[in-house]
Amino acid sequence: MRRYLALVWTSLFLFAMGAAGQNLPPATEGDYTVQNFHFRSGEVLPSLRLHYTTLGAPKRDANGRVTNAVMVLHGTTGSGKQFVSPQFAGMLFAPGQLLDAARYYIILPDGVGHGKSSKPSDGMHARFPHYDYDDMVAAQHQMLVEGLSVNHLRVIIGTSMGCMHAWVWGETYPDFMDAMMPLACLPVQIAGRNRMMRKMAMDAIRQDPAWENGEYKSPPPGLKTALDVLLVIGSSPLQMQKQSPTRDAADAYLDNFMQARFASTDANDFLYAFDASRNYDPSPNLENIHVPVMAINSADDFINPPELGIMEAQIKRLPKGKFVLLPITDQTRGHGTHTLPAIWKDYLQELLSESQP
Q1: Which has the closest alpha carbon to 211: 254, 144, 271, 131?
Q2: How many structural domains comprise the chain?
Q3: How far apart are CA 172 and CA 150, in angstroms?
Q4: Residues 157, 82: contact at Cβ < 8 Å?
Q5: Per residue in 271-293, pLDDT tens?
Q6: Do 69 and 174 meet the contact criterion of CB atoms below 8 Å apart?
Q7: Claim to verify: residue 223 and residue 350 sit in the same structural domain
Q8: 337 and 299 belong to one structural domain
């Protein structure tokens, strides 16, 4: 019976995604260039390109304040364009959905070092400034205010790395948004197994002689080990067992994953993206976040396992904080559950209702 219900739910889910995908609102891409951007490391980039994708149009009140802007922040090695898909945009931005682009102004930035924004592989390689999460958030803020003339956000939704950026946003610009939904992260310094896994991936690249201090002529083999780590930490044991129930199926999945990702991933970009988390630690200033926060993690998240109990303790420090731990089901996808709004959008609706200006 459980398997039958799972198949029914999956069929309905895929049908809904297909129907929504046919009605996705048009997306617009653009770039904003910051001159002489100063990084926290002391480095300066003469021209920093910040790419973004938008849906809908901004609306302002009588005082010129934007009232309908929603920013969605991607994860490590991702881009804003990933959210323009049936499984995400179709569930949130399509006509009649919770964040219908006819009513909301959706902003999907590419973080520094990611997507079509400035990154090491543009030509500077290991001479590219060593950005961190504070730099990435500061650049996002400048892009919004100066590039898009957005002076306020209705809500920030952050996934994985974007989840951590949401916490930085809440502390650095506490009056800039009405609400926050951080998905799949913890509001503390990255330590323990999480840090070890990240260091494994970075060391695999840095310690590969073929890396040549970032001036490699072809992708260093160490990148494959780094991608192995990425595959494991982002996976769900239940789903991987279902998708690859035999040895041959598992081997084929791994081979296909590596072939696709190795060909499309630059080692310097990957290294910088992972290293950007080195200074992250919002825990000392969580009390500064005074807007409603709905933090969501999944019980099958290998990166942020529930047995740590960290979120339960930290969320109590927020005046208006709530934490939801999604149980493991046939629909959750481990760490990747953050990009399946069909699973958590009811909590977003609750957050929007509670944070109504």
Answers
A1: 271
A2: 2
A3: 17
A4: no
A5: 999 999 999 999 999 999 999 99
A6: no
A7: no
A8: yes
